[in-house]
């Protein structure tokens, strides 16, 4: 983070993002680490990091967000955010009727210009003149944000409590490669029932869900300073080339470049 960027951001922790004078409010701040409680907002919000990696969890899905990615969180959707490592958070709060598609929680790609506009808008918060340069920045953001490309990098969360316990076991040991029959047995499920529940609750097969979970975990390892080989081994890949290929297919960037802001 450059000094110029730091000067253009300010803490707005005491401001209620659902009740600012204008219908759009942008917050930016640096955190060393964060685990937020479950909460929801009346307004839609777009959660984005300029640097670092952030996990955004809802009751039905989990997203791991690097730079050039953001998560639209629909109004009223309970969620929490967390990161064990430093990151710069930029959050865009908006009355939902101003942004087409704001009623749907999803991941979007963020280009360099949109990132800079979000940072600029965060410097004047939620109380700015209805006309003038600041209002024009907001108007451009309202044009650009709905047009950002949606990216399918979600990890669906199961609704069945038995499958939830199974998924917790998998997340607790992302390097593990036990077959479904063995993991299912540990939560008193048969392999057939577990496979059926994965498809019903997440829309993914067990193998696909676990692969996506491993790749999200690998991104967190990279944010913590691991190199590509270390991240691959940490999530159970013995073949680094296979890991790189799977990672790029899921995130759209290689492990070596995904944390770059450019």
What number is the mean pLDDT?
91
Helix content: 25-40%
- Euclidean distance between termini CA atoms: 13 Å
The CATH level-2 architecture of the largest domain is identified as Sandwich
Radius of gyration: 19 Å
Tally of contiguous helical segments = 9
Give the helix/strand class: alpha+beta
CATH class of the largest domain: Mainly Beta
Q: What are the secondary-structure elements, in order, as H or E?
A: HEEEEEEEEEHHEEHHHHHH
**Main sheet specs:** 6 strands, antiparallel
Indicate the topology.
Layout: H1 3-7, E1 24-31, E2 34-35, E3 44-51, E4 54-58, E5 61-65, E6 69-73, E7 79-83, E8 87-94, E9 106-109, H2 112-122, H3 133-144, E10 150-151, E11 155-156, H4 161-172, H5 180-185, H6 191-202, H7 206-223, H8 228-234, H9 240-251
Antiparallel strand pairs: 1-8, 2-7, 3-6, 3-8, 4-5, 4-7, 5-11, 6-9, 9-10
Helix pairs in contact: 2-3, 7-8
Question: Could you give a short description of this structure?
Answer:
The protein is α+β, with helices and mostly antiparallel strands. It contains nine helices and eleven strands.
Overview of this structure, please?
With 262 residues, this protein is of the alpha+beta class. The chain has helices at residues 3-7, 112-122, 133-144, 161-172, 180-185, 191-202, 206-223, 228-234, 240-251, and strands spanning 24-31, 34-35, 44-51, 54-58, 61-65, 69-73, 79-83, 87-94, 106-109, 150-151, 155-156. The chain contains nine helices and eleven strands. It is globular, with a radius of gyration of 19 Å. It starts with a helix and ends in an 11-residue tail after the last helix.
């Amino acid at each position: 983070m450059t000094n110029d960027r730091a000067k253009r951001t300010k803490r707005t922790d005491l401001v209620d993002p659902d009740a600012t004078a204008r219908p759009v409010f942008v917050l930016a701040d640096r955190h060393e680490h964060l685990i937020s409680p479950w909460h929801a907002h009346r307004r839609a919000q777009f959660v984005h990091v300029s640097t670092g990696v952030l996990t955004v969890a809802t009751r039905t899905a989990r997203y791991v967000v690097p730079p050039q990615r953001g998560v639209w969180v629909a109004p009223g959707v309970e969620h929490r955010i967390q990161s064990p490592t430093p990151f710069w958070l930029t959050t865009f709060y908006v009355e939902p009727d101003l942004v087409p598609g704001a009623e749907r929680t999803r991941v979007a790609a963020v280009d360099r210009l949109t990132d800079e506009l979000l940072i600029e808008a965060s410097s004047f918060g939620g109380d700015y003149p209805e006309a003038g340069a600041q209002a024009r920045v907001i108007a451009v953001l309202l044009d650009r944000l709905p047009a950002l490309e949606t990216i399918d990098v979600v990890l669906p969360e199961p609704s069945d409590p038995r499958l939830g316990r199974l998924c917790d076991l998998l997340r607790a040991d992302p390097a593990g490669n036990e077959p479904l029959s063995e993991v299912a047995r540990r939560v008193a499920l048969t392999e057939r029932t577990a496979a059926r529940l994965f498809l019903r609750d997440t829309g993914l097969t067990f193998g696909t869900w676990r692969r996506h979970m491993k790749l999200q975990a690998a991104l967190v390892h990279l944010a913590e300073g691991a190199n590509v080989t270390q991240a691959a081994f940490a999530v159970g890949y013995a073949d680094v080339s296979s890991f790189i290929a799977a990672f790029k297919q899921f995130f759209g960037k290689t492990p070596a470049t995904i944390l770059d802001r450019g």
